[in-house]
């Protein structure tokens, strides 16, 4: 198992993993499988996202098979560039429970610190207890609960908004 930065050359692998994880966990992500599959030129758009200088996407590989990924979105506006967001974090079901998610998240935190990001934000479906346990174990705390944040197939899902403070300023 190894972790590396994904580039535009990885777009097809990344998009295929995203589709697989959307199918495995349809309630855990904003987009549905149909919405993802119906995008015009999805691999090309994915390649463009992987070239975006404000986004850093890491991939976890088993041999040459992409089995997990995580994206750090850096903010660029002056008043919020001390913040970053964890996005599109997924590990294929067969590879969960092996420390891959924790390794990816730890590496993103290290990268965020190198960019002098002071706080990392993420959103997670409230019933996703495994993910919440991972985040809390690393130090994320819940800063809010959005009731009925998502609605899929007539079922509502609450989302927890979480934060990890990477630096303390003036004792805060």
Helix content: 25-40%
Q: In whole angstroms, how far apart are the ends? A: 38 Å
Number of strands: 7
| Alpha-beta content class | alpha+beta
The H-and-E topology, N to C, reads as EHHHEEEHEHEE
Main β sheet profile: 7 strands, mixed
Number of domains: 1
- Could you tell me the radius of gyration in angstroms? 16 Å
Q: In the CATH scheme, what's the topology name?
A: Aminopeptidase
Query: From the 3D coordinates, which CATH architecture would you assign?
Result: 3-Layer(aba) Sandwich
Give the amount of beta strand, in percent.
Answer: 35-45%
Text of the CATH class: Alpha Beta
Neighbour order of strands in the largest sheet: 1-2-3-4-5-7-6
The CATH superfamily is: Gcn5-related N-acetyltransferase (GNAT)
Protein name: GNAT family N-acetyltransferase
GO molecular function, one term: acyltransferase activity, transferring groups other than amino-acyl groups
Keywords: Transferase
InterPro entries: Acyl_CoA_acyltransferase, GNAT_dom
Task: Kindly describe this structure.
The chain has 172 residues and is of the alpha+beta class. It has one domain: 3-Layer(aba) Sandwich (Aminopeptidase). The chain has helices spanning 11-24, 33-37, 42-51, 100-114, 129-138, and strands at 2-5, 55-62, 65-74, 83-91, 119-125, 141-152, 155-165. The protein has a 7-stranded mixed β-sheet with strand order 1-2-3-4-5-7-6, with helices on both faces. β3 and β4 (83-91) form a beta hairpin. α1 crosses α3 (42-51). The radius of gyration is 16 Å and the shape is globular.
């Amino acid at each position: 198992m190894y972790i590396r930065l994904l580039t535009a050359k990885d777009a097809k692998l990344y998009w295929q993993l995203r589709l697989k994880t959307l199918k495995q966990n349809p309630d855990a992500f904003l987009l549905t499988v149909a919405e993802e599959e119906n995008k015009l030129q999805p691999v090309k758009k994915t390649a463009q996202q992987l070239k975006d200088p404000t986004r850093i996407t890491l991939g976890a590989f088993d041999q040459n098979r992409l089995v997990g990924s995580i994206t750090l979105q850096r903010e660029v506006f002056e008043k919020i560039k001390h913040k970053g967001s964890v996005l599109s974090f997924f590990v294929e079901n067969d590879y969960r429970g092996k420390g891959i998610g924790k390794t990816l998240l730890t590496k993103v935190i290290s990268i965020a610190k190198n960019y002098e990001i002071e706080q990392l934000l993420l959103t997670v479906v409230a019933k996703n207890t495994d993910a919440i346990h991972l985040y809390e174990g690393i130090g994320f705390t819940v800063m809010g609960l959005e009731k009925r944040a998502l609605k899929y197939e007539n079922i509502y899902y609450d989302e927890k908004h979480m934060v990890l403070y990477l630096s303390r300023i003036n004792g805060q």
